[in-house]
């Protein structure tokens, strides 16, 4: 029997499914993207607000992302007072609570933007996470179609500010009142049909993914996918399915033709015709501002999957082709969406407060920008690293670092216990632009040795012989100790 000590068992170093770690390159690229979005939002007069990641569960209301599991769609727990709390599943419900709570102190209309993580207690899958970031902008307190039109124009401007050119995106607009008119006409009006209405909405929302035939199955008995999983349908009869599909196919050659077709589909429905009127007003405003050049389109296939939308709804779709994991060339699809939700704030105040807004899926948009080469994928430039050549000179090395930091230059002293070779490897892993070396010879001469790691790496590409490497000593030079800061400034200025 072996006397070797048994290895202690400990927790497994693994993430739960549906969550992801992020490294420096991804964080830097995302932050740059968020800064660009923020500038566009502020250009339109929106201001920042932040709400916490946890809300009272009742504040989230019935508008959960997964109707089939209404008590499991969010992560929830009880506090010491036995009150149920939940991680937010979007940024809209917390905004509604915030506006209701501070209603009298806020200017109306209230224009705000928010960025943050949201959480979904759903089955994770490819591209489907339990934690992901959104960046929202909303106008609360205006019933004017101009507020909806403005959100759509801001969405278009945001895409272009991020480097997505015209023709590579489109903002598609519809109105839930029009669809409500269709649903009323096929007998799905009223609170008792809320569940079936949501099933219909989700079926239409899959139009791009499954096509008319797939949606027809989801509107009827249901659909079985390639894996054999069955999705229960809305149970509509043939006539009702035909009317819903006629609605989704009402898009014409231009906004005028589309609006005429929609008016025909909802003929006899007061609510449906009101929705067509709102779309007509939006189309006029969009045209007056010059955004009717293909950037913003009226499209009846846009429905959005949540029940709380009450009027115009919109999606930002990227239209350029990408290659998926299976090697298929596909369109990238939706990266943002939203609409009018006049009932959310009313849940808290007992009176209707009109509101409209949209949300950008940050991770999805970042992936799109990366595929276009518009998002930096390189590791961010690290700090200048001062190597520790002599243990009894640590105070002097620390003084060098202090001088560099006081000059606004990102820097650090090596804090490990390894020799020079390992320290150089460390600096390389830190993506340091340069290292500073001072041994006894340099100290006696009142100098430091600076090794430019960026230039050295470039030079090394053309050097194949070790003797040549030693002879060339690429990108290494001496500088007076008293001129250290200026020498580093000059090196960094070369890029």
UniProtKB/TrEMBL annotation:
Gene3D superfamilies, A to Z: Anticodon-binding domain, Bira Bifunctional Protein, Domain 2
Single GO MF annotation: histidine-tRNA ligase activity
Pfam families: HGTP_anticodon, tRNA-synt_His
An individual GO BP term: histidyl-tRNA aminoacylation
GO CC term (a single one): cytoplasm
Predominant localisation class: cytoplasm
Enzyme class: ligase
Keyword Ribosomal protein: no
Catalyzed chemical reaction(s): tRNA(His) + L-histidine + ATP = L-histidyl-tRNA(His) + AMP + diphosphate + H(+)
Subcellular location: Cytoplasm
Enzyme Commission (EC) number: 6.1.1.21
Keyword Lyase: no
Domain Aminoacyl-transfer RNA synthetases class-II family profile: 31-380
Binding site for L-histidine: 90-92, 120, 134, 138, 304, 308-309
Disordered as annotated region, ranges: 1-21
Keyword annotations of the record: Aminoacyl-tRNA synthetase, ATP-binding, Cytoplasm, Ligase, Nucleotide-binding, Protein biosynthesis
Cross-referenced InterPro entries: aa-tRNA-synth_II, aa-tRNA-synth_II/BPL/LPL, Anticodon-bd, Anticodon-bd_dom_sf, His-tRNA-ligase, HisRS-like_core, HisRS/HisZ, HisRS_anticodon
SUBUNIT field: Homodimer.
Cited NCBIfam families: hisS
Family designation: Belongs to the class-II aminoacyl-tRNA synthetase family.
Name of the molecule in the record: Histidine--tRNA ligase
Originating organism: Phreatobacter aquaticus
């Amino acid at each position: 029997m072996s006397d070797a000590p048994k290895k202690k068992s400990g927790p497994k170093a693994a993430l739960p499914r549906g969550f992801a770690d992020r490294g420096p390159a991804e964080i830097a690229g995302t932050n740059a993207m968020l800064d660009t979005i923020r500038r566009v939002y502020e250009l339109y007069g929106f201001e920042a607000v932040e709400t916490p990641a946890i809300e009272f569960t009742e504040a989230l209301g019935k508008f959960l992302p997964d109707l089939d599991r209404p008590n499991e769609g969010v992560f929830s727990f009880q506090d010491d007072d036995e009150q149920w709390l939940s991680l937010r599943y979007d940024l809209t419900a917390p905004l509604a609570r915030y506006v209701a709570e501070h209603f009298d102190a806020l200017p109306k209309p209230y224009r705000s933007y928010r960025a943050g993580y949201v959480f979904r207690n759903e089955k994770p899958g490819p591209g489907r996470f339990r934690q992901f970031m959104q960046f929202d902008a909303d106008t609360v307190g205006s019933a004017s179609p101009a507020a909806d039109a403005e959100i759509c124009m801001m969405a278009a401007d945001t895409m272009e500010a991020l480097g997505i050119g015209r023709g590579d995106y489109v903002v598609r607009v519809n109105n839930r009142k029009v669809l409500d008119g269709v649903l009323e006409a096929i007998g799905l009006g009223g609170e008792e049909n809320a569940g079936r209405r949501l099933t219909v909405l989700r079926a239409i929302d899959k139009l791009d993914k499954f096509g008319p035939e797939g949606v027809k199955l989801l509107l009827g008995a249901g659909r079985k996918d390639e894996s054999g999983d069955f999705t229960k349908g809305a149970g509509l009869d043939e006539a009702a399915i035909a009317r819903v599909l006629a609605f989704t196919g009402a898009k014409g050659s231009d906004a005028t033709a589309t609006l005429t077709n929609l008016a025909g589909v909802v003929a006899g429905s007061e609510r449906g015709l009101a929705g067509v009127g709102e779309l007509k007003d939006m189309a006029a405003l969009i045209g007056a501002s010059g955004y009717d050049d293909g950037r913003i389109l009226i499209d009846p296939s846009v429905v959005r999957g949540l029940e709380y939308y009450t009027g115009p709804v919109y999606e930002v779709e990227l239209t350029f082709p990408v290659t998926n994991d299976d090697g298929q060339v596909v369109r990238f699809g939706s990266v943002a969406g939203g609409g009018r939700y006049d009932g959310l704030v009313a849940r808290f105040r007992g009176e209707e407060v009109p509101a409209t807004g949209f949300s950008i899926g940050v991770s999805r948009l970042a992936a799109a920008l990366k595929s276009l080469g518009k998002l930096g994928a390189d590791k961010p430039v690290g700090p200048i690293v001062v190597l520790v050549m002599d243990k009894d000179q640590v105070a002097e090395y620390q003084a060098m670092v202090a001088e560099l930091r006081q000059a606004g230059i990102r820097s650090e002293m090596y804090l490990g216990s390894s020799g020079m070779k390992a320290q150089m490897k460390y600096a390389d892993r830190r993506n340091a632009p340069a290292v500073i070396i001072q041994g006894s010879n340099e100290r006696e001469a009142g100098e430091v040795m600076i090794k430019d790691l960026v230039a050295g790496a470039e030079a090394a590409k053309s050097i194949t012989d070790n003797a040549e490497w030693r002879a060339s000593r690429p990108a290494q030079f001496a500088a007076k100790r008293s001129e250290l800061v200026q020498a580093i400034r000059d090196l960094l200025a070369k890029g």
